[in-house]
Design brief:
binds nicotinamide-adenine-dinucleotide; Rossmann fold; 10 helices; EC 1.1.1.18; about 35% helix; binds 1,2,3,4,5,6-hexahydroxy-cyclohexane; single chain; NAD; Gfo/Idh/MocA-like_OxRdtase_N; Dihydrodipicolinate Reductase, domain 2; nucleotide binding; alpha/beta; oxidoreductase; 7-stranded mixed beta sheet
Length: about 350
């Protein structure tokens, strides 16, 4: 493509997240347009395409990826569809923004990482949007400036109002806890070496059999401790809080919207977001704008991403796999990962 033309994006999967990204690209993002939409439910894609000038439906996702009039792909299909669609993007040399998770298991994530490395060009960015959230960036900047001293502890809270009916206990790890895995790696700049998940008495409002809430404990390679509460059926609000405790101070994000307890008089209360699209709307905007800018300049520079890469997706999958194992036994499980240096591009050989 030429530098002056808008990036032509194919959005695959136009459910909740994909439709939100289509609106974002069409109304907020500069330098790009949605040229193609695709969905397993064709009528859904057709209804959306009809609202966007110059947008077509392509019925087969692999045809949408291969389409010569598509410059880049945004994958917002469910996790199990990602592997095949990512490999197709690599085969056709198409830059791709893949909503988390990269894939739903470690082996396929590693295969994607290895295939991309064989190309010698990074084409895959993973949608860990919190890295673009202004509050998280502020926390990271403070921590990395050394003003908190060396970090010792990280405390995280991740609460959702509700989850779709198909959500099971392992999905709480792979779809929800995965964000805290990435935040931990992003803030602390090191890998997670072991995971333990314990499950207290379940919330009576949770669907039968759903082990919710869950408490995850991570240990990092340098011996730091991270604890996470994931609670996805609160029925109340979308609450994401992170606190870093360092040797010379601590800092917390996620509180500026106030605590909510509207039913009890006399308790401090305030506005709080109900959904992730509300809480992280700005993060998604920044994430997609920076990706579009990176891809457009990438056709000149060969660098098509500006954010978490396929390795970050693989590392998260490895931690989540250990988490799912721990969910079964309650024991601490060591995270099994290959060395990053073992992933070699043709230039390294
Ligand atoms: N970053 C975030 O905060 C965030 C938030 C929500 C969802 N997500 C991720 O976004 C992705 C989509 O989630 P969602 O909540 O929008 O799901 P969704 O179920 O609302 O939408 C998925 C859409 O993909 C379609 N689809 C299913 N299989 C397909 C296939 N093989 N090819 C093409 N289309 C297919 C479905 O018909 C549906 O319209 C998931 O990977 C999810 O983890 C990320
Ligand atoms: O897919 C969603 C999304 O990733 C949200 O950011 C997270 O809070 C939810 O728990 C998860 O189900």
């Amino acid at each position: 493509m030429t530098a002056s033309r808008n990036l032509r994006i194919a959005v695959l999967g136009v459910g909740m997240m994909g439709a939100d990204h289509v609106t974002r690209i069409t109304s907020t993002i500069s330098g790009a347009r949605v040229a193609v939409v695709n969905d397993y439910v064709v009528e859904k894609a057709a209804r959306l395409a009809a609202t966007i000038p110059g947008c077509r439906v392509v019925e087969d996702p692999l045809d949408a990826i291969a389409d010569p009039d598509v410059d880049a792909v945004l994958l917002a299909t469910p996790g199990p569809a990602h592997e095949k669609q990512l490999l197709a993007c690599l085969e056709h040399g198409k830059p791709v923004m893949c909503e988390k998770p990269l894939t739903t298991d470690v082996a396929t994530s590693l295969e994607v990482v290895a295939r991309e490395a064989e190309l010698g060009t990074k084409l895959i960015q993973v949608g860990f949007m919190r890295r673009f959230d202004p509050e998280y960036r502020q926390l990271a900047a403070l921590l990395h400036s050394g003003q908190l001293g060396r970090p010792l502890l990280l405390h995280c809270i991740h609460r959702n109002v509700s989850v779709p009916p198909h959500f099971d206990s392992a999905m709480i790890v792979k779809d929800s806890l995965v964000h805290e895995v990435d935040v931990t790696r992003f803030l602390l700049n090191e890998e997670i070496s072991s995971v333990q998940i314990i499950t207290p008495r379940p919330n009576p409002r949770a669907p039968e059999g759903l082990r919710d809430p869950q408490i995850a404990l991570f240990t990092t390679t340098s011996g730091m401790h991270v604890d996470v509460e994931v609670f996805v059926t609160t029925g109340v609000a979308y609450e994401v809080r992170t606190e870093v405790v360092g040797e010379s101070g601590s800092a917390m994000i996620g509180l500026d919207v106030g605590l909510i307890r509207t039913s009890t008089p006399g308790i401090r209360s305030g506005r709080i977001t109900r959904t992730f699209t509300e809480r992280f709307g700005q993060a998604y905007d920044i994430e997609i704008q920076r990706w579009v800018d990176a891809v457009r300049s990438g056709f000149r520079t060969g660098n098509y991403i500006d954010g978490p890469d396929a390795w970050d997706g693989y590392a998260a999958a490895a931690v989540c796999a250990a988490g799912v194992e721990s969910l079964e036994t309650g024991e601490r499980v060591t995270v099994e990962m290959v060395q990053r240096s073992s992933i070699r591009s043709p230039d390294d050989r």
